[in-house]
Amino acid sequence: MSLEMKSECQGCAAPLGWQDEALICSYECSWCRPCADGDGMTCRNCGGELVPRPRRETRPS
Ligand SMILES: [Zn+2]
Ligand SMILES: [Zn+2]
Asked: Which ligand sits closest to the CA of 29?
């Protein structure tokens, strides 16, 4: 199962790197925090609930 996420906010096109805070719905729409808050933590595309995206762990080099 692929978990490829969009790398930018669907609302304002802000870049969402793995280290940035981002929120996703169950259909993997991605939103930055200001957009998610502005929409009441609801996905503007599909109406789903937005949850914080887990950050990919970075391994110490
Ligand atoms: Zn945004
Ligand atoms: Zn959505």
From this structure: 2
